[in-house]
Amino acid sequence: MNKINIAIDGPAAAGKSTIAKRVAEALRMVYVDTGAMYRAITLAHLNNQETSFKELVGQLELRLINDDGQRVLLNGEDITDRIRENDITENVSFVASQQEVREFLVQLQQLMTRDKGVVMDGRDIGTTVIPDAELKIYMIASVEERANRRLLDNAARGIVSTYDQLVADISERDHLDMTRDISPLSKAEDAIQIDTTGLTIDKVTERILALAEEKLQ
Ligand SMILES: Nc1ncnc2c1ncn2[C@@H]1O[C@H](COP(=O)(O)OP(=O)(O)O)[C@@H](O)[C@H]1O
Ligand SMILES: Nc1ccn([C@@H]2O[C@H](COP(=O)(O)OP(=O)(O)O)[C@@H](O)[C@H]2O)c(=O)n1
């Protein structure tokens, strides 16, 4: 069987991580949520605001553990749940726009995908991190549906939020991510766009698995 990489990009709360995790499980591939890496550096920045980004990325030790999803360790501490909180979400697009941060993480992500067999989700995976990925998906959904999904997500995690606040947050984050100077969020020319509005998680997973099977032949 061929070994392939799958890149899944798209705006906030489109369902990328959920689907990427399922696809990776079904195909016994490694799942990498790159948003969690930007969130981890955002936490490090909020804890050390006087430190330059260059120095900050030089100091931190970031580990991703595949364990029914992905756990994130920053300097040995498990920060998987902490990085979903509102202060991180509010600051992550700013941190992700910094050149030193992007250079550091893109290099790390490229190392992770070098031997193939990875399903990686983010904003610049198909355009910058793995431009030669065998399968590229650009996942979208209406902002209303995405806010409703994140509202449920947050409630399950005990994070306080409202629908209106989430529509505003998601729209602002998409705008920042799409207009930043370095590798902004955009659909790679050869990516297949899937609008998940009104689709179940199973349906979207099935569609991507069918596309992946073609590449694995
Ligand atoms: N097709 C879908 N239909 C309904 N809910 C979905 C669908 N895809 C994902 N979700 C839900 O939406 C929420 C946000 O998905 P997530 O994977 O975190 O998005 P992203 O990684 O794009 O930010 C999750 O709670 C997930 O269960
Ligand atoms: N490859 C990536 C992944 C995330 N990011 C940044 O990290 C933020 C958080 O990503 P995420 O995937 O956790 O976001 P959610 O859609 O899950 O809320 C995004 O809003 C981007 O600013 C990025 O710049 N490049």
TrEMBL record:
CDD domains: CMPK. Its main location: cytoplasm. ATP binds at residues 10-18. One of its GO terms (cellular component) is cytosol. InterPro entries: Cytidylate_kin, Cytidylate_kinase_dom, P-loop_NTPase. GO terms for biological process: nucleobase-containing small molecule interconversion; pyrimidine nucleotide metabolic process. It catalyses: dCMP + ATP = dCDP + ADP; CMP + ATP = CDP + ADP. The keyword Nucleus does not apply. Keywords: ATP-binding, Cytoplasm, Kinase, Nucleotide-binding, Transferase. This is Cytidylate kinase. It comes from Macrococcus equipercicus. The gene is cmk.
